[in-house]
Amino acid sequence: MLKLTIRTVPFLVLLLLFGVDQASAQGVSAYFGVGSAFDSAATQSGCPTGQITDPFVGGCASVNSMGGVFGVFGADFMIKPHLGINGEYSFRFAQSNYMPSEQLNVRPSFYDFNAVYQPSSGDKRIVPVLEGGIGGAKMSFYVSQSAGTLFNQSQFLVSSNHFQVHAAAGVKLYVKSDIFIKPQFDFHWVSNLTNQYGRTTVPGFTVSIGYTFGRS
């Protein structure tokens, strides 16, 4: 699971859309949107609050919390009127400054595969959605380097992969017969994330726009 890459996730989402018998489906939805995910700054033993051991020169150095603007895309495949499966990928659009003293940046991303439960019928204008599943989280680190006086460039340094458990609650608000807006609250439990951040729990939210195929 942890060996899945960014390229793998879109492929699996496409499988959800096209690799199954849509004739027996109760509805197939694809969506994309924006949101955020949050975690506090890490603190390592022997360092003050909000600081960890500097991997380059030793000693303690300040690190920043997780936040910023994330993108999300995913797909739902409803096998039965109330039950289905889902694949979802969220990622921070831009690198964020992780360890300012070393110009070390980070770009978090999360991917998950879920069971989906819709308490109400999928033909309603308001459709609550509950998700639960597993996946992974990837923290990609970059070193920012000066390139003259006009701009900086970043070089990939290392990535840290983690197992995660995901849960979400949202609602599809159909503004037209097949087009919906989907606000969603997410909860990620990420194994060993305290190596980089303050908690293993990462709450978040997204607002997406999507389209449902085969909606009656």
Please tell me about this protein's structure.
With 216 residues, the chain is mainly β. The chain has a single domain, classed as Porin, CATH 2.40.160.20. It contains 1 helix and 11 strands. The strands form 2 sheets. An 8-stranded antiparallel barrel has the order 1-4-5-7-8-9-10-11. The two termini are 36 Å apart.
Key terms:
single chain, 8-stranded antiparallel β-barrel, two-stranded antiparallel ribbon, elongated, 216 residues, 11 strands, mainly beta, Porin, disordered N terminus, 5% helix
Question: Short description, anyone?
Answer:
Helices cover 5% and strands 58% of the residues. With 216 residues, it is mainly beta. Strand 7 and strand 8 form a beta hairpin.
CATH architecture, please?
Answer: Beta Barrel
**Major β-sheet strand ordering:** 1-4-5-7-8-9-10-11
Q: H/E series, N to C? A: HEEEEEEEEEEE
N-to-C terminal Cα separation, in Å? 36 Å
Class by alpha and beta content: mainly beta
- Strand % is over 45%
* Number of contiguous helices: 1
Helix content: under 10%
- Largest sheet at a glance? 8 strands, antiparallel, barrel
Mean pLDDT: 87
Ranges where pLDDT stays below 50 over 5 or more residues in a row are: 1-7, 19-24
Oligomer: single chain
CATH class, please? Mainly Beta
Radius of gyration: 19 Å
Q: How many separate domains?
A: 1
CATH domain fold name: Porin
Tell me, briefly, the overall form.
Answer: elongated
Number of strands: 11
